[in-house]
Design brief:
The protein has 214 residues and is of the alpha/beta class. Helix 2 runs parallel beside helix 6. The model has no long low-confidence stretch (mean pLDDT 93). Helix 4 links the parallel strand 6 and strand 7. It contains 6 helices and 8 strands. The longest helix is centred in the middle third of the chain and has 23 residues. The chain is globular, with a radius of gyration of 16 Å. The chain has one domain: Rossmann fold (3-Layer(aba) Sandwich).
């Protein structure tokens, strides 16, 4: 159990400090992942940025990811996606358009305070406050692998074992503090799991950018 996202990130940072990293950059998946990423970047002396992948929601269970879409529009679907109630080609098309619009909205918001960081040839650490199905992370890793990083490290506080196995082939290294078999939701492993607002994520990016430029 973690007290909050900062506590989880500090524990994760202690593990990552043992690695030899090449010009590291930490990429957080908004919004909770930006809190984790900001702490990791601060502790590792790394650059901070965001990745804007979004999950594709199940029709009657919006917390369930049937897949994800990346910042460049690439769609990844979980194996069970077409078996989920209410999933049709029309639904997928409309959900894709909705999430693309949200990616663009967030892009304007976050890129106003920090331009995209280059990842080619660098140690890239991708993080979130936890992983459930892994759909959003898989979409993110597809995009990042195409940009030829030196290495691609997935670092998260908690994820179920089956999701971790799905992610291992997609990255160079996977660091996860907790991998419980009785995983129901990310929030069950945090004492404080308040929703992170856009304004908080923007503030963290702005503060990190100021440190990098000082």
């Amino acid at each position: 159990m973690f007290r909050n996202r900062e506590d989880a990130a500090l524990q994760l940072a202690r593990r990552l400090k043992l690695l030899t990293l090449e010009d590291p950059v930490v990429l957080g998946i908004p919004r909770g992942g930006v809190v984790i990423a900001a702490v990791l970047a601060r502790e590792l002396g790394a650059e901070l940025d965001v990745v804007l992948s979004r999950k594709l929601r199940a029709p009657y269970q919006p917390e369930l990811a049937i897949g994800a879409i990346s910042e460049d529009g690439e769609v990844y679907l979980n194996a069970f996606a077409h078996q989920a109630a209410g999933v049709t080609e029309q639904y997928l098309r409309e959900e894709r358009e909705h999430q693309i619009a949200e990616i663009r909205r967030r892009g304007k918001l976050f890129r106003a305070v920090r331009p995209p960081a280059g990842v080619t040839g660098r140690s890239v650490i991708v993080t979130d406050d936890g992983i459930a199905t892994g759909a959003t992370m898989v979409a993110t890793l597809h995009v990042l692998n195409a940009q030829k990083p030196h290495e691609l490290i997935v670092a998260v506080p908690v994820a179920p074992p089956d999701t971790l196995e799905k992610l291992r082939p997609q990255c160079s290294r996977l660091e996860c503090l907790l991998a419980p078999a009785d995983f129901d939701a990310i929030s069950q492993f945090y004492g404080d799991f308040q929703q992170v607002k856009d304004e908080e994520a923007v503030r963290l990016l702005r503060e990190s950018r100021a440190r990098e430029q000082s």
